[in-house]
Amino acid sequence: MPPEVRTVVNLKPYREALALPGLRSLLLVSVLARIPLTATGVVLTLHVVLDLGRKYGAAGLVGAASTVGAALGAPLLGRLVDRRGLRPVLALTTIAEGVFWASAPELSYPVLLPTAFLAGLLTLPVFSVVRQSVAALVPADRRRPAYALDSMSVELSFMVGPALAVALATALSPRITMWAVGAGIVASGVGFWLLNPPIRSADEPVGPARKVPRREWVTPRLLAVLAVSLAATLVLGGTDVAVVAVLRAGGELGWTGAVLTMWAAASLVGGFAYGAVTRSFSPLVLMAALSLTTIPVGLGGSHWWLLCLALIPAGALCAPTIASTADAVSRLAPAAVRGEAMGLHGSAVTVGIALGAPLAGAVIDAWTPPWGFAVTGAIGALVALVVLPVELRHRREAAAEPATPDLTPAPL
Length: 412
Fold this sequence. Notes:
Layout: H1 3-6, H2 12-18, H3 23-38, H4 40-51, H5 56-84, H6 86-103, H7 109-121, H8 126-137, H9 143-171, H10 174-195, H11 214-217, H12 220-249, H13 256-276, H14 283-294, H15 304-316, H16 318-332, H17 338-366, H18 370-400
């Protein structure tokens, strides 16, 4: 490798991050714990359609109820972690998940719908807890590769979880698969309870702390990062639906798995490069680039291999964008409220995905499948323009007052 390339991309940031005590075990447990969690949506859909004999619209309502519950519950559970510690929250949510998944296969549809909302409200907070723990384990100047590893682990979980659930439901039944997923989630909760990763760093106060008013930390910059997070996952949720629609319109629906795998693989490569390069990028810049590269994807046509190629630039920006937003929230939130802040980040990510899929579906129904990429990408770009003044104002303030922490450090 030429010297000029070695100075830009190298493995040293990853080696330094993984050498930190506790990070390697945290990331390993998080991959295993997220696999059953990523399978919940498809398992509920298959159960409602195949076991309960309902239509996909009814299945979508159950998924929406669970999603709304998760979006509302994430910051509440994060606040509880901040005030009571991690283990009580893990115990509460693990028990709740166990009760839901043990009983859900036996519930009628009218009972399943509100129960799914309650289960979503008490979803095992693995995603936000891992990101909170990363901030506790890793110094601020070395979090970028750590959050890149976290985003790559999320991609791996989404590649394995839903596919494994579909295979199990096909080989056995959706009912048995629901129990298997529930057992996996309970095992994940127990695993995290035993691991008990830190939620505060060694130099941050442990135990009861001064109550931090929200007006002190829910700043325009934090709201901007949350908006960027929501917009990014809206684009990703819309892309997911548009890929299926384009392939179906072209008679190549059987290649959906291959295209989505290529998209995820590009995200893994992008996430790895993001953590290894020697400079940082603003979440706003990454989200804007993700949105702009998504707009023309539909022009690749209905052939699956052309769609794979067209998705590579946008795919390579998926993991970096999510990693950068998590890193930004960890820097902006005081330690005493980091759990609640990470919960808000999780809610933004969840709401974005929940909005992106039906939005793209409505656009596709009204026009043609390629418009699903164009419209969701355009919305992401519009959010970037709305948030831009906040970023520019911060840069001016940072230039006038160099001691102010910055989300986008100067190139090394």
